[in-house]
């Protein structure tokens, strides 16, 4: 018998193990990411997390955030604060996706009887008439077909290019058009001729602050994005997830100065490019793009299957070989 039980982050459940058993979950459904998201942005509504059991077996964890609509936790409307998760989904043991989604969508509509104070604060008596809005569902996720089958209204929200990586670097280069292939080789050769070193270092406050410095230097928009609150959030994420080897910080170093930085996330057989920065005075060396190319090379050498550029259709993602894939919103 399948049942949904409301839980909290403090409950002793094998969250990490279920993420590993899931084809729906991504880095943005890890306990570290979501618990920190709630700490900084979750107080504006009600946080509801369901654990889904088949008898005693945990087959799903479904976290939601309820305001005037029901969203997947950490994935509000992009116009709202805290829109930092590139992918929305829930955590489901592979092969159990449909029954978990059916159970969760039934349960989330029920009267939140365990939250009477919060219910009054939000002006809700039940959830039956609240819109369910599930943002940034990947087209390759099993959730996509199931939510479509269950009658969700569907719309394209964004693109998220990625590369299906071959076994060798030269094979990857051969997939690019002639111009892009020439440019990558030229940029890498120039970096090497200048004696610039690429390295991935331990996670500590000094390296995190260097990453922030280069983000701010490279782009005014990134500087505005990196508020003190954002820095605190990402510092916690980087320290906690770095300890578990779920991410890394890499740099290009020239004349004893870091001139480019990149934050890479890891999830199963994928490498995810979350953010980057570079020193503009060295733009003639193309350090930002070259460091991204180096990270693709590293992913290939590690036998990683996918390199994901995450949300956004910036030109460089396609120049580096990214193929378009869509992210969707489902509304119930």
UniProtKB/TrEMBL annotation:
Pfam families: Acetyltransf_6
Domain BioF2-like acetyltransferase intervals: 180-317
SUPFAM superfamilies: Acyl-CoA N-acyltransferases (Nat)
Membrane-spanning residues: none
Full protein name: BioF2-like acetyltransferase domain-containing protein
Lineage: Bacteria, Candidatus Gottesmaniibacteriota
């Amino acid at each position: 018998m399948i049942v949904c039980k409301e839980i909290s982050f403090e409950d002793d459940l094998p969250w990490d193990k279920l993420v590993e058993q899931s084809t729906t979950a991504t880095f943005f459904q890890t306990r570290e990411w979501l618990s920190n998201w709630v700490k900084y942005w979750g107080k504006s509504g009600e946080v509801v997390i369901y654990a889904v059991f088949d008898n005693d077996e945990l087959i799903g964890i479904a976290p939601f955030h309820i305001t005037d609509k029901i969203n997947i936790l950490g994935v509000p409307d992009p116009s709202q604060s805290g829109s930092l998760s590139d992918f929305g989904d829930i955590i489901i043991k592979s092969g159990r996706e449909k029954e978990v989604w059916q159970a969760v969508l039934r349960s989330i509509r029920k009267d939140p009887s365990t939250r009477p104070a919060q219910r009054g604060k939000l002006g809700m008596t039940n959830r039956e008439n609240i819109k369910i809005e599930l943002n940034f569902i990947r087209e390759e996720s099993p959730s996509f077909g199931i939510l479509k089958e269950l009658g969700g209204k569907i719309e394209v929200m964004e693109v998220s290019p990625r590369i299906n990586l071959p076994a060798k670097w030269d094979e990857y280069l051969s997939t690019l058009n002639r111009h892009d292939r020439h440019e990558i080789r030229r940029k890498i050769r120039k970096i090497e001729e200048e004696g610039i070193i690429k390295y991935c270092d331990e996670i500590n406050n000094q390296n995190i602050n260097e990453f922030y410095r280069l983000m701010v230097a490279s782009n005014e928009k990134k500087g505005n994005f990196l508020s003190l609150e954002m820095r605190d959030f990402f510092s916690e994420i980087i320290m906690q997830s770095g300890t578990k080897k779920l991410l890394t910080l890499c740099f290009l170093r020239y004349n004893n100065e870091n001139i480019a930085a990149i934050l890479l996330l890891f999830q199963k057989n994928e490498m995810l490019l979350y953010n980057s920065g570079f020193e503009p005075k060295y733009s003639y060396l193309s350090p930002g793009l070259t460091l991204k190319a180096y990270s693709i090379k590293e992913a290939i050498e590690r036998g990683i299957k996918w390199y994901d550029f995450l949300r956004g259709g910036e030109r460089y993602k396609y120049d580096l070989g990214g193929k378009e894939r869509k992210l969707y919103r489902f509304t119930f």
